[in-house]
Amino acid sequence: MGFLKKDSDFSSGEHFSVVSAECYFQGTLNVQGSLRVDGTLEGSVDNARHVIVGTEGKIVGDVTAEIVVCGGIIEGNVCADMLEVLSAASLHGDIRAKKMIVEEGGRIDGQCLIGGGETEPAEPKEEKEEAN
What we know:
The structure is a single chain. Helix content is 0%, strand content 48%. The chain is an all-beta fold. The protein has one domain (14-114).
């Protein structure tokens, strides 16, 4: 929640990138630090430390990060250690996360795999066994 405040302190020395409200970006972003999206990003976000989608922000693509805070819209799959879906947010896609918080009013349309040490979804089990 603190990442969405206007007075958030980014002076920690960590690298961060911003797609501002006036921006539209298309392509894959490989972000080593933090990313804040207040505009529209059409493409995937890979290897980020933190991804923050502001209330007016939108990502159309998959997101892979340690921490994802969604206050706007994500249309794609999310893989994170921690996912926070805020009250005005909408997430359309499958989720894999170790931990997840969804505020009242936050919307999710997709399958969720939460918790455990697994980072990959389980493979579907075969119903038929081959005869020897």
